[in-house]
Amino acid sequence: MHRATGNLPTKTYLLQVLTAGQSFSDATNGITITNQGTSGGVATVGVSMGGGVCSRASPTVAVSPASQTGSAGATLSYSVSVTNTNSSACGSSTFSIGQALPSGFSGSLSSTSLALGSGSSGSVTWTTTSAATLANGSYTLDANATDTANSAYTTTAHASYTVYSNVTPPTVAVTSPANGAVLSGGHPVSISASATDDGGIQAVEIYIDGVLLARDTGAPYSANWNIRKVAKGLHTIKARAIDNAGLMAEQSISVTVN
Q: Mind listing the pLDDT tens digit for each residue in 157-190?
């Protein structure tokens, strides 16, 4: 018994030597060949054609993106992709889609089942929400797909949901002029400030005696103060930083205009 990988006379591969009465079965293609014997130099073989044998295997499951970050209480969406690895003889297979979430999470799937042909893939949207009181940290979410014809064939894929809630206000400082500086002359004074925050700075506001002078949304943060018509004497310069979480911090200095 030989098998050819192309059109004859290409090279063939020996699969099995059949003596009289022996059979060879190709389970993948549903073919059985039997050596029925030889007589007068002539060999007689029997060939029976049947449907291929259904061979099941656990599906392939992937979650994308593999990791996301959101604040406590945020809703994030993932895509769960499933590939049917059953043989073609199984025809279309249906897979149930499930989830396993840690405490403090809720989630939903756009569909809880997928019908797929052999070798075909499909996907569903997986929406997850963390509790508003959840502590910062990384949490593992599980999505699974199970062949409904045989629950032994199941696969679980993992995704990461990192909770990060910024609870620390930014730092801010007036860097120029110096505290206690004496300002004179008719030229505008350049006011500079610095600000930092782990979650990023939204804006820095500059105030003169409690009145907003300027708002800068990009570093370096600065503003020009025209002191020509400002009353002589003591004045307060304040810098207020606002981070991307809406938290604020401020610093004030005093200068004298003469």
A: 999 999 988 889 999 999 999 999 999 877 899 9
At 39 the pLDDT is: 79
Distance of CA 70 to the CA centre of its chain: 11
Could you give all domains of the chain from N- to C-terminal order, each with its CATH number?
A: 2-49 (no CATH), 60-163 (2.60.40.2310), 171-257 (2.60.40.10)
DSSP 102-130: -TTEEEEES-SEEEE-TT-EEEEEEEEEE
Confirm if 71 and 162 have CB atoms less than 8 A apart.
no
Phi/psi for 140 (5° steps) reads -95, 130
Give every residue of the chain whose pLDDT is below 70, as ranges.
1-10, 13, 27-30, 50-51
Nearest Cα to 100, choosing from 144, 154, 63? 144
Task: Identify residue 4 by its one-letter amino acid code.
Answer: A
Beta partners for 17? Answer: none
Provide the pLDDT for residue 26. Answer: 74
